[in-house]
Amino acid sequence: MVLKDSFERPVTNIRISLTKQCNLSCIYCHREGEKASKDQLSAPEIAEILQLAAEFGIRSVKFTGGEPLLRPDLLEIIRSVPKGMESSLTTNGTLLAGLAQDLKNAGLRRVNVSLDSLNPDTYRKITGIDRLSDVLNGITAALEAGLTPVKINMVLLEGINDQEVDDFLAFVRGNRNLILQLIELMNFNECDYHGDLNGLEQSLASRSKQIVTRRMHHRKKYCLDGAEVEVVRPVHNTEFCAYCTRLRVTSDGKLKPCLMRTDNHIDIRGKHGAELEALFRKAVAEREPFYR
Prior knowledge:
alpha/beta, twelve-stranded mixed beta sheet, globular
């Protein structure tokens, strides 16, 4: 049974934040709108959420953070993903080299690696720490372990890394297991580096041999010169909202119906069985496009 909201948008995937903790201090981080809290869902609670999600026809889960690789019980969580549900994970990559094969063995399908610069000085400016070589080693380890395709998440920051797009295209070019995702900055914490992606996307389109429209948010994938790049534009984007099929769970146990809102979270901590099911239905019923 697939849940649909009142706008006939099915919920087919779920995104679960495992922790607010992170070992980087990125200048733009919005923590997906989560407020400060020491609470986080336990592995058994996450397993129960995943089982219910599977019963509702949700076919994929993405684990996020903070930095999910900081969870000592991460492998247990991944092993709890129901059969038939695809699992992926977004990480900053700093700890990935030592865990990639274990993640694959536990059942993880693939990873997204957040990487906003290939220049060590710029990387340090954005993240507050010198870990670029660790991230690059993590990407190599993920490729070797078969956590593919590895998607490189680059948040475009005007005046900081926007001149590196061609460098990132060169980084993924010729490797079908690497995909570049150019992500629009969400200005939740009044970060002043938001750039307009219209011109960039037009340039990519003019240079592409093939353009594919993905089901997820109707976003475009551009294929050019042996490189694949997707553009993720959640801000002021009616298509992003109209084709959203995702429900989010915060690390402290709240259902989050919309990425762009923080005022309609539904607390599910300590809820089980029919009560938890009813709250899932309520969260889906409250989903509505932020941009129309």
